[in-house]
Specification:
Layout (H helix, E strand, L loop, with lengths): L14 H8 L8 E5 L2 E5 L1 H7 L1 H9 L7 E4 L5 H13 L10 H10 L11 H11 L5 H11 L5 H4 L2 H23 L1 E3 L5 E3 L10 H5 L4 H14 L3 H20 L9 H6 L3 H13 L9 H14 L3 H13 L6 H4 L14 H18 L4 H4 L8 H20 L7 H8 L11 H13 L5 H8 L9 H8 L6 H22 L25 H42 L2 H14 L14 H15 L1
Helix pairs in contact: 2-3, 4-5, 5-6, 7-9, 9-11, 11-14, 12-14, 12-15, 14-15, 15-16, 16-18, 18-21, 20-22, 24-25, 26-27, 27-28
């Protein structure tokens, strides 16, 4: 169809007035067409010569001389019918990306095909769609946007699928061309890809953000099938989510108490967007920033998205948790007014996913893991980073009065024992929890402190723990025991020519960090051995504590039966036996002062 050079001033007049500008003015109209949004007084001959549908309607009512036709559910409404009527009257107008989808749908609805007229509207619109629109990515996006109001007919006519295939193909070609343009020779003469902050072939990312979510989802799926880079797909998802969800994500206010009302007031569009974006995320790691994944997870929790959607996000975050920050883990809780300030259950599931991933990597045989002295593997370094992150997270949530003990322990215990080489962070978090929850019973305090390996405390943390009144007595005894071992090892290291070897010489001296003189694999095997030795020593310590308790009972009975002089004599003897870290070898009895001097000299010899 020829393009016209002068547009008709259609915007300044009503539908009936518009028709008077291009219909036969000297011939009275003999048919009235009613469509959604307007009424047209036209002539039968131009319409029946091009439209098979109107021809059939007129033929069915030939005897009654029909003068009024209703076309309900007309695709595109009165605007589309006006363009079709202009074509029937031979009025020139321009086919563009803004109206080609409407013309294709209205021509199909009115049956304006080659069967009724040569070079009919359906043929003209189809040729323009194929030869012009499908060769230009921006025009395809514009046509898809117009198809949003023409579904499902536009889908049945394959307008949507043709535009989607064209967009995917063009994006892939643009990306390949951009990759070739980034090839350059290095100083050594080798061909390599130059690094750029943003790929020039990804200019289409902004264009796709205007599409509705259902069409956008189909476009991204087609791009993934065509082989578009995961980084480009991720960048497009981030851009689309920021435009659709930014306002909703900023609605949450930590000081707002009406959390339930906020969630219930949101419509389902944002939930649909989040679930669709999660389903489109590339399977490759680092295709999208982890902060974006956490943002999606917060929004999914707030909007109460499906369980599968949230679990998928938690699994993806768990696979790259080592690059997360403390602010990422602080996910607000939106469920109940009396719940914790932060969503501890979600973080616990993320940690479980991370630990399960680490366990799957540890299923290899020990020989294949420790057969060389190579540097620590990424999984080991990731485990150390996550352990520090978890300890900081525990210290952050510990002051929450609504935080239950079982949840705190579950988060702290979600990592394997070898994840923490030093327990200072875990001790600090535990101390904060004990300070904020002073009503804990003694069994609960002992249960909580079992998380801490006091052997892995640094010298400063050990000194603090030894004077910490919030710790149970058993924990303080363990701290003193390990502090004595540390001091003993330090003294023997100062005198290497001594014939006596220090007890548990392989244990850490000043901190729980790995020894630099040993390879990571040897350290791992050493940790396992030390763990077994520590369990044996703890068992011996429990036995000694039981003996002390029995001695204490005997002392009380003796005090009740004896007079004060006998009591002082018996007390001196019992004090000589109270040695936490060794058995007394002296069988002589003497005055209390001499007995005390002997006890001090024995402790000095052991240390």
């Amino acid at each position: 169809m020829d393009k016209h050079h002068q547009q008709l001033p259609l915007a300044k007049c009503s539908r009936q007035q518009r028709c008077s500008e291009w219909v036969f003015r000297d011939v009275p109209s003999d048919i009235t067409i009613e469509v959604d949004g307007g009424t047209f007084s036209l002539h039968k001959f131009p319409l029946v010569s091009r439209s098979g549908r109107i021809r059939k309607l007129v033929a069915e009512h030939r005897d009654s001389d029909i003068s009024r036709v209703e076309l309900l559910s007309l695709p595109g409404g009165s605007e589309s019918f006006e363009l079709a009527a202009k074509f029937c009257y031979g009025v020139n107008f321009e086919i563009t990306a803004a109206n080609v989808a409407q013309l294709c749908c209205i021509s199909d609805y009115l049956e304006m095909t080659e069967e009724f007229s040569k070079n009919n509207l359906g043929t003209r619109a189809g040729e323009y769609l194929e030869s012009v629109v499908c060769k230009n990515l921006e025009m395809c996006v514009e046509v898809l946007q117009q198809c949003e109001n023409l579904l499902p007919l536009a889908d049945e006519l394959k307008i949507v699928s043709r535009c989607i295939d064209a967009i995917a193909s063009k994006a892939c070609v643009e990306q390949i061309a951009s990759s070739f343009s980034r090839l350059e020779y290095s100083s050594s003469g080798r061909l390599h890809m130059s690094r750029q902050a943003k790929c020039e072939g990804d200019w289409w990312i902004e264009d796709l953000s205007i599409l509705r979510i259902d069409l956008y989802q189909r476009v991204i799926t087609a791009m993934k099938c065509r082989g578009v880079r995961p980084e480009s797909i991720g960048a497009s998802l981030v851009n689309y989510a920021q435009k659709e969800l930014t306002k909703k994500c900023s609605l949450w206010n930590p000081s707002n108490q009406q959390k339930v009302d906020l969630v219930s007031g949101l419509n389902g569009h944002e939930r649909l967007v989040v679930e669709a974006i999660v389903s489109l995320l590339p399977i490759e790691k680092f295709a999208v920033p982890i902060t974006f994944l956490f943002g999606l997870l917060r929004t999914a929790v707030m909007l109460d998205c499906t369980v599968a959607c949230r679990l998928d996000l938690e699994r993806r975050i768990g696979s790259q948790l080592d690059i997360a920050t403390l602010d990422d883990l602080l996910i607000p809780s939106f469920r109940h007014a009396n719940d914790t300030l932060f969503d501890v259950d979600t973080v616990h599931r993320i940690l479980v996913n991370f630990s399960q991933q680490d366990d799957s990597e540890e299923d290899m045989e020990d020989g294949s893991v420790f057969d060389s002295d190579s540097p620590p593997s990424p999984s080991q370094s990731a485990m150390f980073k996550v352990s520090k992150l978890v300890d900081n997270y525990l210290a952050e949530i510990a002051p929450d009065a609504n935080l239950k003990l079982n949840k705190f322990i579950a988060v702290a215990d979600s990592l394997p024992a070898h994840a923490r080489t030093i327990h200072d962070g875990l001790y600090r978090a535990t101390d904060v929890y004990l300070k904020a929850h002073q009503s804990l019973s003694d069994p609960d305090r002992r249960k909580l402190c079992k998380l801490i390996d006091f052997q892995k405390l640094s010298q400063e943390a050990g000194a603090h723990a030894a004077q910490n009144e919030r710790l149970p007595l058993q924990s303080i005894v363990q701290v003193l025991y390990f502090e004595q071992l540390r001091l003993r090892n330090a003294l023997f290291c100062s005198y290497p020519d001594d014939d006596h070897k220090p007890l548990h010489q392989s244990w850490r001296i000043s901190s729980g960090a790995l020894s630099a003189a040993m390879s990571p694999r040897d350290n791992y095997a050493s940790l396992r051995r030390e763990n077994r030795e520590l369990k044996l020593e703890l068992a011996r310590l429990r036995m000694r504590l039981n003996d002390l308790e029995k001695e204490h009972v005997c002392m009380k009975k003796s005090m009740e039966r004896s007079n004060s002089r006998k009591f002082m004599s018996s007390f001196s003897k019992k004090m000589g036996k109270l040695n936490f870290f060794g058995h007394s070898s002296s069988k002589e009895s003497s005055s209390p002062s001499k007995q005390s001097q002997r006890t001090d000299s024995k402790l000095t010899e052991r240390t």
